[in-house]
Amino acid sequence: MIDILTAIFIISSTAAGLAAILVVAERFFADYGECLITINNDEKRTVKGGGSLLESLTSEKIFIPSACGGRGTCGYCKCKVLKGGGILLPTEEPYLSAEEKKNNMRLSCQIKIREDIDIEIPEELLAVKEYKVICKKIVDLTYDMKQFIFSLQEPAKISYTPGQYVQLFAPKYDGNTEEVYRAYSISSDPADNTIVELIIRLVPNGICTTYCFKHLKEGDQALLNGPYGDFRLTDTNAKIIFIAGGSGIAPIKCMLHHMQNITCLREAVFYFGVNSEKDLCMVDTMRAFEKTLPKFKFVPVMSRPEHPEKWKGETGLVTEAVLRNEKNADQSEAYLCGSPGMIDASIVVLKKLGMKESNIFYDKFS
Amino acid sequence: MTGLTGEMTHALVVCFSAIFTGNMVLSYFLGLCPFIGVSREIKTAFGLGTAVVFVLTFTSGINWAAYHYILVPLELDFFRFILFIIIIAAFVQFVEMIIERFSPLLYVNLGIFLPLITVNCAILGVSLFMVIRDYSLIVTVAYGFGSGLGWMLAIVSMAGIRQRLNESRIPYGLQGPGITLIIAGLMALAFIGFSGVLQGR
Ligand SMILES: Cc1cc2nc3c(=O)[nH]c(=O)nc-3n(C[C@H](O)[C@H](O)[C@H](O)COP(=O)(O)OP(=O)(O)OC[C@H]3O[C@@H](n4cnc5c(N)ncnc54)[C@H](O)[C@@H]3O)c2cc1C
Ligand code: FES
Hints:
The structure holds two protein chains of two kinds. By secondary structure, chain A is of the alpha/beta class. Chain A has helices spanning about 1-30, 55-60, 100, 125, 205-215, 250-260, 285-290, 320-325, 340-350; strands spanning about 35-40, 45-50, 80-85, 105, 115-120, 130-140, 145-155, 165-170, 180-185, 195-200, 220-230, 240-245, 270-275, 295-300, 315, 335-340, 360-365. A six-stranded antiparallel β-sheet of chain A has the order 9-8-11-6-7-10. A six-stranded parallel β-sheet of chain A has the order 15-14-13-12-16-17, with helices on both faces. Chain A has a five-stranded mixed β-sheet with strand order 2-1-5-3-4. In chain A, helix 8 (about 320-325) runs parallel beside helix 9 (about 340-350). The mean pLDDT of chain A is about 90. Chain B is mainly α. Chain B has a domain at about 25-160. In chain B, helix 8 crosses helix 9 (about 175-190). Chain B starts with a helix and ends in a 9-residue tail after the last helix. The chains are: A alpha/beta, B mainly alpha. The structure holds flavin-adenine dinucleotide (FAD) and FE2/S2 (inorganic) cluster.
């Protein structure tokens, strides 16, 4: 009996001794001390080494777009690393073009901070903040689209350019074990900088949209960060052709509010593509814009109306309607928003109408 | 003095025979799992091979000491399986920390394979053989080193062959592990040719 006990004791204490050595070694090897992150040759932040660059920047309240939560699968979190990023890792390679590699672009979620590091990020990203918000109102737009109005808590105000997007945080919930951020274009009136309005379309089994549709209730807290993106109106006087499908209406609504606020007299036409009557929404809002913006026209296009005899508007694909109505587009600008398929098809049509590629702006909801 | 020289000669012979005649994979079929899993590219095979050489050389020495200074005096040698495994696991963890700190590229390349070394039976095999064969410390370390080199030689040659095979057409049912095992068999046959060269024990 004693024999067995001593044997167990000896083996256990050897194991414990080894574990202790490992703990000490971990202290020693995994401690990278304090490292200095220099941003754009100007801002300096001291962080604890050992974490990923993305994590460290987030903890310093500097937000770099990231859709996959740092797992190296979205390729959004690119930034330029001038010094201290170490060698390019095999996990980064698939997301970087030859050009980007030459320019020292890296995926910030894959880089581990081991020493002082110099990075360059677009100036706007430094203005990105995290907002604690309360979901004030949820409005049903169609069977699969809802409008969410969030009132800002902390910070209380947001400043953005119409066309930009925010990232909404989706927490873990029943049936979802992942925390993710997803991009949604701001659709609110920029005159009111205390709220953020989003128009979201349900993606079946989508992590974030399921959270918004099934779990988020009026009065709940939520978290977003932003603004991001360079989809925005130019300050020329060229005619505007807006093309959107589904929830792509969001940034365009925001731009129209803005045009109204500055009494912009640019000629504009908005082709809004939907499948059938049950997808059509915001018609009243758009008709109201037609009243206040004298040179604005709203053209809903239905590809498969359920009651063709009752539908008086345009039918067919949105690109077909554009071809029918626009004659010469070489002096116009286009703003496209929606699924990648719709955007690519629209670009082809617009170029056929003589539009220069440099005058086509878009946000792909991919 | 002659004792020491004799010891060194013995160590050298054991080391060479561990590489060629008594090759861990090709003669004893130990450590087959990573041998098949990580032999797709010479670069990674070489990385893992180096790690195995390193781990084997050190763990065989440490395990020798643990066996002779802890287990034998306490008459607990039946516990050697457990103790050897614990020591190997701890040592691999330790090496993992060092690699992560000093060579991120190697760390990323070996990825999940580094912990796999822990359960690489070639490593435990060496420690158990050294007990059965009653080697001295110097011979044990030489044996560990040689076994590691032998394992690395085998996996790197295998990776070379498999890289070549990428361009050839292999019958559907044999692709992947199938053809790899057949090649391993042919390599083992080739290695038998060494047995006449060295008669190490
Ligand atoms: C710049 C930008 C702006 C965006 N603005 C808006 C917006 O204003 N309103 C809005 O509703 N969405 C917008 N999106 C899309 C949004 O970010 C999410 O991709 C979408 O809501 C799905 O998120 P999820 O977590 O619910 O689905 P996930 O869990 O990410 O996806 C579940 C499955 O659905 C597929 N999937 C992902 N997105 C879509 C999609 N859009 N359509 C069809 N299948 C999809 C995925 O491949 C996956 O297989 C925008 C995207 C970008 C990049
Ligand atoms: S955060 Fe998605 S790849 Fe880096």
